[in-house]
Amino acid sequence: AGAAPPPARSGIGPIGVQLYTVRDAMRADPDATLARLAAIGYREVEFAGYHDRPPRALRAALDRLGLAAPSAHVPLDELAPGRLDATLDAARTLGHRWLVVPWLA
């Protein structure tokens, strides 16, 4: 007898996309890019920069499209004193639960 198959999962939750993978499209047109991702079926996105868009404008787009943004990649210097409050304010506005530092120099 062979090994038993792995147990079936009851679900993996919403499928999301890391926006770094579409960074050129986000840079060119964040609203259209988010709309295309929502149309494909994504329900969660992870930001990797806000492309000079105010967090409130991005949040309005997310809400309009039925998207959530539970996390974001942020550079380490965004967590430094003097910048941390603004970073956390943006995170709260966008609904981020987690901030990820994706690399260290």
Shape designation: globular
Beta-strand percentage?
A: 15-25%
- Ends apart, CA distance between termini: 50 Å
Mean pLDDT: 92
What is the number of beta strands? 4
Can you summarize the main beta sheet?
4 strands, parallel
Supply the key terms.
four-stranded parallel beta sheet; 4 helices; globular; single chain; 37% helix; 105 residues; alpha/beta; 4 strands
Summarize the structure.
The protein is α/β, with parallel strands linked by helices. The protein is 37% helix and 15% strand. It has helices spanning 23-28, 30-40, 55-65, 84-94; strands at residues 16-18, 44-47, 68-73, 98-100.
Write a structural description.
This protein is of the alpha/beta class. Helix content is 37%, strand content 15%. The protein has four helices and four strands, in the order βααβαβαβ. It has a four-stranded parallel beta sheet, with no helix packed on it. Strand 3, helix 4 and strand 4 form a beta-alpha-beta unit. Helix 2 runs parallel beside helix 3 and helix 3 runs parallel beside helix 4. The longest helix is centred in the middle third of the chain and has 11 residues. The model has no long low-confidence stretch (mean pLDDT 92).
